[in-house]
Every structure is written in structure tokens, then in C-alpha cells.
Design goal:
Helices cover 33% and strands 25% of the residues. It is built from 8 helices and 10 strands. One of its GO terms (cellular component) is plasma membrane.
């Protein structure tokens, strides 16, 4: 589904060797996370807490799609947030390649996320007043990319996800599937090493969801992808499925 020009721009956008296929992009080691009654990270022994994750460990190599399944409250979203650097686990470590995210300051973690992590939300999270192209380019604005370059990059990505004729449309003028494609293009705008997706087909009908899954499969060829879902069709595209129950790994297949 991706056209060749986007793959070529990916190859030329970084000064790095082509050893990505054999690398571990994400590593969780003995990750435990407790939410306190105040809604923040666990800080005191007498605070009421909920343990969302318990001693979770697994790797996500580049070029691999890992699916997370389990009932609501099993810890899927907490894992995605930890991998994206949106929270620091109470115990254990989350490594992005060789970097322990917990060892970074808040600002450093934000910069790491903006550069190396793409996030796909279930409900799209597009800015309604911006065009599809402007939504895709938004992370590039934050990264300080010149306007002409980010416009070109956003246009290429929208063409790659089949929306070359929708670049000027507002989100309200797009279908649900088209909005999710814009969200995926936005997640790819900084050329990240890792994509995390939370119920990426949850708002879509079966046919449209199938198109999005095909797109995620293409993305997973040269990135690490972590997908949380209740949907069997979504999980079927994963190379590996981890089942969570009560914050623990219950099955790994």
C-alpha cells in the first residue's frame, strides 16, 4: 500500500545503517505499575493503589507486530502508555533501543517520544480546524521542520495511505476510515522506530477496518508495532499475541 517514494524518503531521512531488521526496538523488563488514589504514580506505602501491571517482560523487534489482548483493566493501555513514555512504571524498565525511558527527564522523554514513537488513537484525535495535511504535519511543526519540507512530507504520506485527493479536507469532511488513515499518516510523520496503536479499528466497520489493518501490516515491515485490541481480526495481523489478565502476562503465542 505504501508507495515507493515514501520508503525511499525513509531510507534517506536518517544517517544510520540498515541493521534495523535484527534489532530489538522495545524491551520491557519486570515492569510493574501502580496507580495511586491521587491518579499519579505510586509514592507512599499508605496510599490506596491499583496495580495495573505486574512483572511484565517482553521484547518487540523491529519488523514485528505484537498484539496485546485481554479484558478491560488487564493492563493493555498502561503498557502502551509506558512504551510511549507517557508514564514511568513504578518498577522495572522500558527501553527504547538502548535508552531506559525512566532515566530521562520529562523533557527528554517528550523529545524521545516525538522523534521515535508514533501513536495511533482509537478516536483519531485530529484537530477539527486543520486540514488533513496540516494534521499530519503537526508533529513536524513541533520538531522544527521547515514549512516546505513538512508540507511535502505530509503530502507524500497522505498519498501513501490512499488520501492524495483529501489533503485539504477537514476531519469533519472525511469518513471514519479516512480519519484513521490521516491519524496513521500523522503517526508516521517523524519516521518513528515504534508505532503504538490503541484499538485502531474500534470505531470502524469491518471493511474499513480491514483496509486499516492492511496499512498497519505494511507499516510493520520496517518498524516495531504494538497494537492493543479486543478484536480478533486486528490481532490476526500480529506476529505475536500477548494475553494479559489482571496486569500479568497470561499467555504469549
Amino acid at each position: 500500500m505504501f508507495n515507493q517514494s515514501v520508503h525511499e524518503s525513509r531510507s534517506s531521512s536518517r544517517d544510520r545503517t540498515d541493521d534495523r531488521e535484527s534489532t530489538t526496538a522495545v524491551r520491557l523488563e519486570d515492569v510493574t505499575h501502580r496507580y495511586g488514589s491521587s491518579g499519579g504514580r505510586f509514592r507512599s506505602s499508605d496510599e490506596r493503589t491499583v496495580t495495573a501491571l505486574r512483572d511484565v517482560s517482553f521484547d518487540v523487534p523491529t519488523g514485528t507486530i505484537v498484539g496485546l489482548e485481554g479484558p478491560s483493566g488487564s493492563g493493555k493501555s498502561t503498557i502502551l502508555h509506558a512504551v510511549a513514555g507517557l508514564l514511568v512504571p513504578t518498577e522495572g524498565s522500558v527501553r527504547l533501543r538502548d535508552t531506559d525511558l525512566a532515566a530521562l527527564s520529562d523533557g527528554e522523554r517528550t523529545r524521545m517520544r516525538r522523534r521515535h514513537i508514533g501513536i495511533v488513537f482509537q478516536r483519531f484525535h485530529l484537530l477539527p480546524s486543520l486540514s488533513a495535511r496540516a494534521n499530519v504535519a503537526l508533529p513536524l511543526v513541533q520538531a522544527g521542520v521547515p514549512r516546505s519540507d513538512r508540507r511535502e512530507r505530509a503530502t507524500d504520506l497522505l498519498e501513501a495511505v490512499g488520501l492524495g485527493d483529501r489533503t485539504a479536507h477537514l476531519p469533519g469532511e472525511l469518513s471514519g476510515g479516512e480519519r484513521q488513515r490521516v491519524a496513521i499518516a500523522r503517526a508516521l510523520s517523524t519516521d518513528p522506530d515504534v508505532i503504538v496503536a490503541d484499538e485502531p479499528t474500534g470505531e470502524l466497520d469491518t471493511a474499513t477496518g480491514g483496509d486499516v489493518l492492511e496499512l498497519l501490516t505494511d507499516i510493520g515491515r520496517d518498524r516495531a508495532v504494538l497494537v492493543a485490541s479486543h478484536d480478533a481480526a486486528t490481532l490476526s495481523v500480529a506476529d505475536r499475541v500477548i494475553t494479559l489478565r489482571d496486569g500479568r502476562v497470561d499467555d504469549d503465542r
